[in-house]
Amino acid sequence: MTAPDVPAFPMNRTCPFDAPPEYAELRGTRPVVSAQLPGDQRTWLLTRHEDVRAALADPALSSNRRNPGFPLRAFGVRPPADFPQPMIGLDGAAHSAARRPVISEFSVPRVHALRPRIQQIVDEAIDTLLAAGQPADLVRYLSLPVPSLVICELLGVPYADHEFFQSRSARLVNRAVDPDERMAAATEVREYLDGLVTEKEREPGDDLLGRQILRARADGTEDHGGLVSLAFLLLIAGHETTANMISLGTLALLTHPDQLGLVRDDPATTPLAVEELLRYFSIVDSGTARVAVADTEIGGQPIAAGEGVIALGLAANRDPQVFERPDDLDVTRGARHHVAFGFGPHQCLGQNLARAELTIVFDTLLRRVPTLALAGGVEDIPTKQDATIYGCYELPVTW
Amino acid sequence: MRISADTDVCIGAGQCVLTEPAVFDQDDAEGTVVLHTTEPAAEYEDAVRDAVQLCPAQALSIVEE
Ligand code: HEM
Ligand code: SF4
């Protein structure tokens, strides 16, 4: 039962491009509001950019997914009990200890060095797309394989296993696949990563896992389970997110020809367009959730220990106080103070890798396939309203 | 303008490097912020102010204007 003045969460996007209309209304009238989650749990919802940033930087708000007050538990986000929590669920010093050894792997210069390999992966994916015959599903041939193969490269998955890794991880992140099958795929991927880590421990190579092993040995902090958990997190956090941004970004450009023209005519625009597409879609939206572990205050509203908080990234990124004409897609906007990658100590570890993948994909796709078009109407594209991470299931295209 | 960076709280997001690579870099081994200079030239002051705002970990500060 929902009381009349208590909004129910989640709220749906009404078309592929717009935020749920309730977000603007709440931002104007009740920017910090108590909402009803499925089941009997309540949560605070934040809709102002300022409050979202403040919450995500507030040490009184915890990322611990095992805390019973953690709001995403209402959507089935529960880490398996026998698995060490990766950095995304840790706070304070424990979070810092988990994140610190990995940050150099994702630095701007390090990602820059990966670009030629990413370009190769993108070129090959576009070859398969073009060979598939028309109409072809862009999600299947481009959006899903690119981030998965980039993660293979990063982790040092041997070439012979790419096919296995790629097919299982596509099933694991595909919400159209039934839950049992997804669970089975998750188990297979986890077992695979466990074996991979064991192999790397025997013979640490020049890849992320190899370097983590050598580093931990030097520090005396070697932890097999922790490394498997990290590898799994990198896959989960980097695969569906990047895939959805490739699909939605392509969809937005194809349906906004003036914006597409700007990107196609000047490659210097692509990085700006990527930032704008990240802001515009804010696919993680409610994924930046927290639970208070001490009393605090956000936007003047006291939050008590034990209460959940959802910092709505999409609402923050459409805040008219911060972004002019926030509902317009403007690839020349050049705004990087959006919160599509979160804010505070958990801000996306892979953000520069995601930026590189998206920039290379859009640059290559628009130039190599200048006649690219949607096979049907926008209204026929199945979007993920039900998922924690927004995206589309399929994107049939012609050229 | 004089600036400082706290590498203990830096989370290596690289927002500063994207904003002004002439002033900010990331350490190759640790990934944390490295300042090319603590007294950036006047032409970089606006970019430095942007970077301070963008830094998700509040690791950057302007010590004196
Ligand atoms: C467009 C693609 C992506 C988007 C929109 C995105 C978004 C986000 C967001 C919003 C968070 C913060 C979660 C929170 O505060 O609770 C996050 C964290 C994270 N992301 Fe991404 N991400 C993307 C791609 C990637 C990639 C490619 C990787 C790595 C391969 C990655 C790895 C991570 C990790 C490890 C964290 C946890 C960081 C921490 O807890 O300190 N992400 N991401
Ligand atoms: S923006 Fe802040 S957290 Fe990111 S690298 Fe620079 S100083 Fe570190």
From TrEMBL, chain B:
This protein's record includes keyword rRNA processing: no
Known role: Ferredoxins are iron-sulfur proteins that transfer electrons in a wide variety of metabolic reactions.
GO molecular function, one term: electron transfer activity
SUPFAM superfamilies, per the entry: 4Fe-4S ferredoxins
Domain of life the protein comes from: Bacteria
Cofactor(s), by name: [3Fe-4S] cluster
Name of a matching Pfam family: Fer4_13
Designated name of the protein: Ferredoxin
Alphabetical UniProt keywords: 3Fe-4S, Electron transport, Iron, Iron-sulfur, Metal-binding, Transport
Origin species: Actinocatenispora rupis
